Amino acid sequence: MDIEKIRADFPYLDSKKVGKDVIYLDTAATSQKPKEVIDAVDNYYKYQNANPHRGAHYLSFVATTAYENSRDKIKEYIGAKNREEVIFTRNATEALNLIAYSYALENLKANDEILITILEHHANLVPWQIVAKKTGAKLVYAYLNEDYSLNYEDLKNKINEKTKIVSFTGASNVTGEIIDIKKIVNWAHEAGAIAIVDGSQLTPHLKIDLSDLDCDFYVFSGHKLLSPMGIGVLYGKKALLEKMNPFLTGGDMIEYVYEQESSFASLPYKFEAGTQNVGGAIGLAKAIEYMEKIGLDEIYKYESDLTRHAYNFIKDYPHIKIFYPENSKTGAVLSFTYDDIHPHDIASILDNSGIAVRSGHHCAMPLHKYLGISASARASFAFYNTKEEAEIFAKELLNVRKVMGL
Q1: pLDDT tens for residues 85-142?
Q2: Where in the sequence numbering do the catalytic residues fall?
Q3: CB neighbours (10 Å) of residue 333?
Q4: Residue 236 φ then ψ, to 5°
Protein backbone atom coordinates (compact mmCIF):
# COMPACT_ATOMS: atom_id res chain seq x y z
CA MET A 1 0.00 0.00 0.00
CA ASP A 2 1.22 3.45 -0.96
CA ILE A 3 0.29 5.22 2.27
CA GLU A 4 1.36 8.69 1.15
CA LYS A 5 -0.72 8.37 -2.02
CA ILE A 6 -3.68 7.25 0.07
CA ARG A 7 -3.24 10.13 2.52
CA ALA A 8 -3.35 12.58 -0.38
CA ASP A 9 -6.96 11.46 -0.89
CA PHE A 10 -8.09 12.69 2.55
CA PRO A 11 -8.83 16.42 2.90
CA TYR A 12 -8.63 16.38 6.71
CA LEU A 13 -4.86 16.23 6.35
CA ASP A 14 -4.82 19.72 4.80
CA SER A 15 -3.66 21.54 7.93
CA LYS A 16 -4.16 25.01 6.41
CA LYS A 17 -7.86 24.43 5.78
CA VAL A 18 -8.43 22.39 8.95
CA GLY A 19 -6.63 24.96 11.09
CA LYS A 20 -3.97 22.68 12.57
CA ASP A 21 -2.15 19.40 12.05
CA VAL A 22 -4.29 16.52 13.29
CA ILE A 23 -3.27 12.95 14.03
CA TYR A 24 -6.72 11.39 13.82
CA LEU A 25 -7.00 8.28 15.99
CA ASP A 26 -10.78 8.23 16.39
CA THR A 27 -11.89 6.23 13.37
CA ALA A 28 -13.88 3.80 15.54
CA ALA A 29 -16.21 6.73 16.29
CA THR A 30 -16.36 7.98 12.71
CA SER A 31 -13.97 7.66 9.80
CA GLN A 32 -12.52 10.41 7.67
CA LYS A 33 -13.78 10.64 4.09
CA PRO A 34 -11.70 10.46 0.90
CA LYS A 35 -12.20 12.95 -1.91
CA GLU A 36 -13.74 10.29 -4.17
CA VAL A 37 -16.61 9.82 -1.73
CA ILE A 38 -17.08 13.54 -1.14
CA ASP A 39 -17.06 14.17 -4.91
CA ALA A 40 -19.61 11.40 -5.54
CA VAL A 41 -22.02 12.90 -3.01
CA ASP A 42 -21.36 16.40 -4.35
CA ASN A 43 -22.04 15.21 -7.90
CA TYR A 44 -25.36 13.68 -6.86
CA TYR A 45 -26.65 16.84 -5.24
CA LYS A 46 -25.45 18.98 -8.13
CA TYR A 47 -26.55 16.91 -11.12
CA GLN A 48 -28.74 13.94 -10.06
CA ASN A 49 -30.85 15.30 -7.23
CA ALA A 50 -34.49 14.20 -7.21
CA ASN A 51 -36.83 12.00 -5.23
CA PRO A 52 -36.33 8.40 -6.37
CA HIS A 53 -38.81 5.70 -7.38
CA ARG A 54 -42.09 7.51 -7.97
CA GLY A 55 -41.14 10.40 -10.20
CA ALA A 56 -42.03 10.23 -13.92
CA HIS A 57 -39.28 12.62 -15.00
CA TYR A 58 -35.64 12.32 -16.03
CA LEU A 59 -33.94 13.39 -12.80
CA SER A 60 -36.09 11.04 -10.73
CA PHE A 61 -35.03 8.20 -13.03
CA VAL A 62 -31.38 9.17 -12.66
CA ALA A 63 -31.68 9.35 -8.84
CA THR A 64 -33.49 6.00 -8.74
CA THR A 65 -30.80 4.36 -10.84
CA ALA A 66 -27.99 5.75 -8.67
CA TYR A 67 -29.78 4.67 -5.48
CA GLU A 68 -30.51 1.14 -6.67
CA ASN A 69 -27.03 0.71 -8.16
CA SER A 70 -25.69 1.52 -4.70
CA ARG A 71 -27.83 -1.28 -3.25
CA ASP A 72 -26.41 -3.71 -5.80
CA LYS A 73 -22.85 -2.64 -4.95
CA ILE A 74 -23.45 -3.23 -1.25
CA LYS A 75 -25.11 -6.59 -1.94
CA GLU A 76 -21.98 -7.78 -3.72
CA TYR A 77 -19.66 -6.34 -1.08
CA ILE A 78 -21.29 -8.16 1.84
CA GLY A 79 -22.08 -11.35 -0.06
CA ALA A 80 -25.88 -11.21 0.22
CA LYS A 81 -27.80 -13.64 -1.99
CA ASN A 82 -30.58 -11.24 -2.95
CA ARG A 83 -30.67 -7.47 -3.44
CA GLU A 84 -34.00 -7.43 -1.57
CA GLU A 85 -32.06 -8.40 1.55
CA VAL A 86 -30.24 -5.05 1.64
CA ILE A 87 -32.25 -2.42 3.51
CA PHE A 88 -31.03 1.17 3.81
CA THR A 89 -31.35 2.70 7.29
CA ARG A 90 -29.89 5.77 8.99
CA ASN A 91 -27.26 3.74 10.84
CA ALA A 92 -26.62 0.44 12.60
CA THR A 93 -28.56 1.65 15.64
CA GLU A 94 -31.74 2.10 13.63
CA ALA A 95 -31.17 -1.27 11.94
CA LEU A 96 -30.88 -3.06 15.29
CA ASN A 97 -33.99 -1.31 16.57
CA LEU A 98 -35.81 -2.39 13.43
CA ILE A 99 -34.95 -6.01 14.16
CA ALA A 100 -35.93 -5.64 17.80
CA TYR A 101 -39.32 -4.08 17.08
CA SER A 102 -40.32 -5.81 13.84
CA TYR A 103 -38.95 -9.27 14.60
CA ALA A 104 -38.27 -9.77 18.29
CA LEU A 105 -41.39 -8.16 19.74
CA GLU A 106 -43.52 -10.24 17.39
CA ASN A 107 -41.79 -13.57 18.00
CA LEU A 108 -40.58 -13.69 21.61
CA LYS A 109 -42.65 -14.63 24.63
CA ALA A 110 -42.22 -15.00 28.39
CA ASN A 111 -39.25 -17.15 29.49
CA ASP A 112 -37.59 -17.05 26.08
CA GLU A 113 -33.95 -15.96 26.24
CA ILE A 114 -31.91 -13.37 24.35
CA LEU A 115 -28.16 -13.94 24.55
CA ILE A 116 -25.69 -11.11 24.00
CA THR A 117 -22.11 -10.47 25.13
CA ILE A 118 -20.83 -7.98 27.69
CA LEU A 119 -18.84 -6.42 24.82
CA GLU A 120 -21.91 -4.93 23.19
CA HIS A 121 -22.39 -1.31 22.19
CA HIS A 122 -25.56 0.16 23.70
CA ALA A 123 -27.19 -0.09 20.26
CA ASN A 124 -27.01 -3.88 20.55
CA LEU A 125 -27.98 -3.93 24.21
CA VAL A 126 -30.68 -1.39 25.10
CA PRO A 127 -33.16 -2.61 22.42
CA TRP A 128 -32.91 -6.12 23.90
CA GLN A 129 -33.56 -4.76 27.39
CA ILE A 130 -36.76 -3.19 26.06
CA VAL A 131 -37.77 -6.36 24.21
CA ALA A 132 -37.18 -8.42 27.36
CA LYS A 133 -39.34 -6.10 29.46
CA LYS A 134 -42.17 -6.03 26.92
CA THR A 135 -42.24 -9.78 26.22
CA GLY A 136 -41.16 -11.27 29.55
CA ALA A 137 -38.09 -12.77 27.90
CA LYS A 138 -34.78 -12.95 29.76
CA LEU A 139 -31.65 -11.10 28.72
CA VAL A 140 -28.54 -13.25 29.24
CA TYR A 141 -24.88 -12.19 28.96
CA ALA A 142 -21.72 -14.02 27.95
CA TYR A 143 -18.58 -12.66 29.62
CA LEU A 144 -14.81 -12.45 29.07
CA ASN A 145 -11.66 -14.34 29.90
CA GLU A 146 -9.01 -12.76 32.11
CA ASP A 147 -7.13 -11.50 29.05
CA TYR A 148 -10.26 -9.52 27.93
CA SER A 149 -11.09 -11.95 25.13
CA LEU A 150 -14.60 -13.30 24.71
CA ASN A 151 -15.20 -16.49 26.68
CA TYR A 152 -16.61 -18.71 23.95
CA GLU A 153 -17.17 -21.58 26.36
CA ASP A 154 -19.32 -19.35 28.55
CA LEU A 155 -21.30 -18.21 25.52
CA LYS A 156 -21.81 -21.74 24.20
CA ASN A 157 -22.94 -23.02 27.60
CA LYS A 158 -25.60 -20.29 27.79
CA ILE A 159 -27.25 -21.31 24.53
CA ASN A 160 -30.13 -23.69 25.24
CA GLU A 161 -33.62 -24.58 24.09
CA LYS A 162 -34.95 -21.29 25.53
CA THR A 163 -32.52 -19.19 23.48
CA LYS A 164 -34.35 -17.51 20.61
CA ILE A 165 -31.91 -14.74 19.70
CA VAL A 166 -28.11 -14.57 19.87
CA SER A 167 -26.98 -11.03 19.05
CA PHE A 168 -23.31 -10.07 19.16
CA THR A 169 -20.70 -7.70 17.82
CA GLY A 170 -18.44 -8.75 14.97
CA ALA A 171 -15.61 -6.71 16.49
CA SER A 172 -15.51 -4.92 19.83
CA ASN A 173 -15.31 -1.13 19.82
CA VAL A 174 -13.45 -1.29 23.17
CA THR A 175 -11.16 -4.32 23.16
CA GLY A 176 -10.73 -4.52 19.40
CA GLU A 177 -11.28 -8.30 19.40
CA ILE A 178 -12.60 -9.74 16.15
CA ILE A 179 -15.22 -12.33 16.97
CA ASP A 180 -15.54 -15.76 15.36
CA ILE A 181 -18.93 -15.09 13.79
CA LYS A 182 -19.36 -18.40 12.03
CA LYS A 183 -18.77 -20.41 15.18
CA ILE A 184 -21.40 -18.52 17.17
CA VAL A 185 -23.90 -18.54 14.29
CA ASN A 186 -23.58 -22.33 14.07
CA TRP A 187 -24.19 -22.70 17.81
CA ALA A 188 -27.25 -20.45 17.62
CA HIS A 189 -28.72 -22.34 14.68
CA GLU A 190 -28.14 -25.71 16.32
CA ALA A 191 -30.39 -24.51 19.15
CA GLY A 192 -33.01 -23.13 16.76
CA ALA A 193 -32.15 -19.49 17.54
CA ILE A 194 -31.52 -16.68 15.07
CA ALA A 195 -28.13 -14.97 14.95
CA ILE A 196 -27.72 -11.20 14.67
CA VAL A 197 -24.34 -9.55 14.06
CA ASP A 198 -23.46 -5.91 14.73
CA GLY A 199 -20.84 -5.37 12.05
CA SER A 200 -20.23 -1.68 12.75
CA GLN A 201 -16.59 -2.17 13.79
CA LEU A 202 -15.91 -5.10 11.46
CA THR A 203 -17.20 -4.08 8.03
CA PRO A 204 -14.80 -1.12 7.55
CA HIS A 205 -11.74 -3.25 8.23
CA LEU A 206 -12.25 -6.81 7.02
CA LYS A 207 -13.91 -8.48 4.04
CA ILE A 208 -17.05 -10.41 4.98
CA ASP A 209 -19.18 -12.94 3.12
CA LEU A 210 -22.65 -13.27 4.60
CA SER A 211 -23.47 -16.24 2.38
CA ASP A 212 -20.69 -18.08 4.17
CA LEU A 213 -21.24 -16.67 7.67
CA ASP A 214 -24.98 -17.55 7.44
CA CYS A 215 -26.14 -15.07 10.11
CA ASP A 216 -29.81 -14.13 9.94
CA PHE A 217 -29.30 -10.37 10.30
CA TYR A 218 -26.24 -8.16 9.88
CA VAL A 219 -25.99 -4.39 10.38
CA PHE A 220 -23.41 -1.66 9.87
CA SER A 221 -23.07 2.13 9.64
CA GLY A 222 -21.66 3.99 6.67
CA HIS A 223 -19.99 6.78 8.63
CA LYS A 224 -17.45 4.33 10.06
CA LEU A 225 -16.74 3.13 6.51
CA LEU A 226 -15.51 6.33 4.83
CA SER A 227 -19.01 7.45 3.83
CA PRO A 228 -21.43 10.17 4.95
CA MET A 229 -23.25 10.19 8.26
CA GLY A 230 -26.90 9.20 8.21
CA ILE A 231 -26.63 6.04 6.10
CA GLY A 232 -26.57 2.47 7.34
CA VAL A 233 -27.46 -1.03 6.19
CA LEU A 234 -29.61 -3.81 7.51
CA TYR A 235 -29.10 -7.19 5.90
CA GLY A 236 -31.70 -9.82 6.67
CA LYS A 237 -32.49 -13.19 5.20
CA LYS A 238 -35.32 -12.75 2.73
CA ALA A 239 -37.58 -15.36 4.33
CA LEU A 240 -37.40 -13.54 7.67
CA LEU A 241 -37.84 -10.05 6.24
CA GLU A 242 -40.91 -11.09 4.28
CA LYS A 243 -42.69 -12.19 7.47
CA MET A 244 -41.82 -9.02 9.42
CA ASN A 245 -44.07 -5.99 9.75
CA PRO A 246 -42.75 -2.55 8.80
CA PHE A 247 -40.87 -0.61 11.46
CA LEU A 248 -41.76 2.83 10.06
CA THR A 249 -44.77 3.64 7.92
CA GLY A 250 -45.63 6.39 5.48
CA GLY A 251 -44.50 7.37 2.02
CA ASP A 252 -42.72 5.07 -0.44
CA MET A 253 -43.22 1.88 1.61
CA ILE A 254 -46.89 1.43 0.76
CA GLU A 255 -48.69 -0.46 -1.98
CA TYR A 256 -52.25 0.79 -1.43
CA VAL A 257 -53.76 3.01 1.25
CA TYR A 258 -57.47 3.03 2.02
CA GLU A 259 -59.30 4.96 4.71
CA GLN A 260 -59.10 2.17 7.28
CA GLU A 261 -56.26 -0.07 6.12
CA SER A 262 -53.13 -0.26 3.98
CA SER A 263 -51.03 -2.80 2.16
CA PHE A 264 -47.27 -2.52 1.95
CA ALA A 265 -44.66 -2.61 -0.78
CA SER A 266 -42.47 -5.62 -1.38
CA LEU A 267 -38.88 -5.94 -0.16
CA PRO A 268 -36.72 -3.98 0.30
CA TYR A 269 -39.02 -0.96 0.12
CA LYS A 270 -41.33 -2.18 2.88
CA PHE A 271 -38.65 -1.07 5.37
CA GLU A 272 -37.62 2.18 3.65
CA ALA A 273 -40.32 4.65 4.63
CA GLY A 274 -40.08 8.25 3.48
CA THR A 275 -37.48 9.94 1.32
CA GLN A 276 -34.22 8.10 1.77
CA ASN A 277 -30.66 9.40 2.08
CA VAL A 278 -29.87 8.84 -1.58
CA GLY A 279 -26.66 10.87 -1.40
CA GLY A 280 -25.55 8.79 1.57
CA ALA A 281 -26.22 5.53 -0.27
CA ILE A 282 -24.21 6.76 -3.25
CA GLY A 283 -21.40 7.81 -0.91
CA LEU A 284 -21.40 4.40 0.79
CA ALA A 285 -21.18 2.57 -2.53
CA LYS A 286 -18.30 4.82 -3.61
CA ALA A 287 -16.53 4.24 -0.27
CA ILE A 288 -16.75 0.49 -0.82
CA GLU A 289 -15.39 0.90 -4.33
CA TYR A 290 -12.51 2.98 -2.96
CA MET A 291 -11.61 0.36 -0.36
CA GLU A 292 -11.80 -2.46 -2.88
CA LYS A 293 -9.30 -0.64 -5.10
CA ILE A 294 -6.85 -0.59 -2.21
CA GLY A 295 -7.67 -4.17 -1.18
CA LEU A 296 -9.55 -5.29 1.92
CA ASP A 297 -6.93 -7.86 2.91
CA GLU A 298 -4.19 -5.24 2.62
CA ILE A 299 -6.21 -2.77 4.69
CA TYR A 300 -6.79 -5.28 7.47
CA LYS A 301 -3.16 -6.37 7.62
CA TYR A 302 -1.88 -2.79 7.66
CA GLU A 303 -4.32 -1.62 10.33
CA SER A 304 -3.84 -4.59 12.63
CA ASP A 305 -0.04 -4.35 12.32
CA LEU A 306 -0.21 -0.61 13.04
CA THR A 307 -2.32 -1.20 16.13
CA ARG A 308 0.05 -3.90 17.39
CA HIS A 309 2.95 -1.54 16.77
CA ALA A 310 1.35 1.11 19.00
CA TYR A 311 0.45 -1.51 21.59
CA ASN A 312 4.04 -2.76 21.79
CA PHE A 313 5.20 0.80 22.45
CA ILE A 314 2.84 1.54 25.33
CA LYS A 315 2.18 -1.83 26.97
CA ASP A 316 4.98 -1.47 29.53
CA TYR A 317 4.31 2.14 30.48
CA PRO A 318 4.03 2.65 34.25
CA HIS A 319 0.50 2.78 35.67
CA ILE A 320 -1.11 1.97 32.32
CA LYS A 321 -3.77 -0.67 31.82
CA ILE A 322 -4.64 -1.74 28.27
CA PHE A 323 -7.81 -3.69 27.54
CA TYR A 324 -6.42 -5.54 24.58
CA PRO A 325 -6.59 -9.33 24.09
CA GLU A 326 -3.17 -9.60 22.48
CA ASN A 327 -3.42 -13.36 21.85
CA SER A 328 -6.70 -13.06 19.92
CA LYS A 329 -7.45 -11.82 16.42
CA THR A 330 -7.79 -8.09 16.80
CA GLY A 331 -8.61 -5.06 14.72
CA ALA A 332 -7.67 -1.41 14.97
CA VAL A 333 -8.67 -0.37 18.49
CA LEU A 334 -6.62 0.21 21.65
CA SER A 335 -8.51 1.14 24.84
CA PHE A 336 -6.51 2.01 27.93
CA THR A 337 -6.33 4.06 31.07
CA TYR A 338 -3.79 5.25 33.58
CA ASP A 339 -4.67 4.24 37.11
CA ASP A 340 -4.08 7.78 38.37
CA ILE A 341 -5.23 9.98 35.44
CA HIS A 342 -8.80 10.34 34.21
CA PRO A 343 -9.30 9.37 30.55
CA HIS A 344 -10.77 12.81 29.78
CA ASP A 345 -7.52 14.39 30.98
CA ILE A 346 -5.55 11.97 28.82
CA ALA A 347 -7.60 12.93 25.75
CA SER A 348 -7.36 16.67 26.47
CA ILE A 349 -3.59 16.61 26.91
CA LEU A 350 -3.14 14.55 23.74
CA ASP A 351 -5.37 17.00 21.90
CA ASN A 352 -2.98 19.81 22.84
CA SER A 353 -0.40 17.89 20.83
CA GLY A 354 -2.78 17.49 17.89
CA ILE A 355 -3.70 13.88 18.62
CA ALA A 356 -7.40 13.01 18.49
CA VAL A 357 -8.47 10.07 20.68
CA ARG A 358 -11.79 9.19 22.28
CA SER A 359 -12.48 9.20 26.01
CA GLY A 360 -15.51 7.98 27.95
CA HIS A 361 -17.45 4.73 28.08
CA HIS A 362 -17.69 4.43 24.27
CA CYS A 363 -21.40 3.53 24.53
CA ALA A 364 -20.41 0.39 26.42
CA MET A 365 -21.20 1.19 30.05
CA PRO A 366 -21.92 -2.40 31.17
CA LEU A 367 -18.57 -3.49 29.76
CA HIS A 368 -16.73 -0.74 31.60
CA LYS A 369 -18.49 -1.63 34.84
CA TYR A 370 -17.53 -5.28 34.26
CA LEU A 371 -13.91 -4.16 33.77
CA GLY A 372 -14.05 -2.18 37.02
CA ILE A 373 -13.65 1.27 35.46
CA SER A 374 -15.99 4.14 34.65
CA ALA A 375 -14.26 5.25 31.46
CA SER A 376 -11.27 4.62 29.22
CA ALA A 377 -9.29 6.39 26.53
CA ARG A 378 -9.32 4.85 23.06
CA ALA A 379 -7.03 5.19 20.08
CA SER A 380 -8.44 3.71 16.88
CA PHE A 381 -6.44 3.40 13.70
CA ALA A 382 -7.14 3.36 9.98
CA PHE A 383 -5.20 2.77 6.80
CA TYR A 384 -4.75 6.55 6.41
CA ASN A 385 -2.67 6.61 9.60
CA THR A 386 1.09 6.05 9.55
CA LYS A 387 3.64 4.23 11.66
CA GLU A 388 5.13 7.61 12.53
CA GLU A 389 1.76 8.81 13.84
CA ALA A 390 1.46 5.70 16.00
CA GLU A 391 4.90 6.42 17.46
CA ILE A 392 4.07 10.08 18.10
CA PHE A 393 0.92 8.95 19.90
CA ALA A 394 2.97 6.57 22.05
CA LYS A 395 5.53 9.26 22.87
CA GLU A 396 2.92 11.86 23.75
CA LEU A 397 0.97 9.36 25.85
CA LEU A 398 4.07 8.94 28.00
CA ASN A 399 4.34 12.72 28.17
CA VAL A 400 0.81 12.92 29.62
CA ARG A 401 2.20 11.89 32.99
CA LYS A 402 4.74 14.72 32.94
CA VAL A 403 2.05 17.26 32.12
CA MET A 404 0.05 15.98 35.08
CA GLY A 405 3.13 16.32 37.32
CA LEU A 406 3.43 12.58 37.89
Answers
A1: 999 999 999 999 999 999 999 999 999 999 999 999 999 999 999 999 999 999 999 9
A2: 363
A3: 27
A4: -145, 145
Q: Which residues contact 56 (CB under 8 A, 6 or more apart)?
A: none
Cα 114-324-215 angle, rounded to 5 deg: 35
Could you say which residues of the chain have pLDDT below 50?
Answer: none
Within 10 angstroms of residue 341's Cβ, the number of other Cβ atoms is 18
Strands 232-236 and 217-221: antiparallel
Is residue 99 a contact partner of residue 241, using CB atoms and an 8 Å limit? no
Q: For residues 115 and 93, give the distance between their C-alpha atoms in angstroms, rounded to a whole number.
A: 18
pTM of the model: 0.97
Contacts 24+ apart (CB under 8 A), 106-109: 106/244, 106/245, 107/164, 108/135, 108/137, 108/164, 108/165, 109/135, 109/136, 109/137
Asked if residue 195 lies in contact with residue 188, where contact means CB atoms within 8 angstroms, the answer is yes
Residue 131 CB burial class (10 angstroms; 0-12, 13-18, ≥19)? buried
Q: Are 104 and 78 in contact (CB under 8 A)?
A: no
Q: Kindly list the distances between the CA atom of residue 86 and the CA atoms of 68, 103, 192, 282, in Å, as whole numbers in the listed order.
A: 10, 16, 24, 14
Give Cα 249 to chain centroid, integer Å: 25
Q: H or E segment at 363?
A: none
Q: With beta carbons less than 8 A apart as the criterion, state whether 323 and 336 touch.
A: yes
Sign of the alpha-carbon torsion through 152, 154, 159, 165: negative
Torsion, CA 148, CA 313, CA 199, CA 65, rounded to 10: 180
Three-state DSSP class for residue 298: helix
Quick check: 115 and 167 in contact, CB under 8 A? yes
Residue 272's CB: how many other CB atoms inside 10 A? Answer: 24
What single DSSP character describes residue 171? B
Distance from C-alpha of 232 to C-alpha of 218, rounded to nearest angstrom: 11
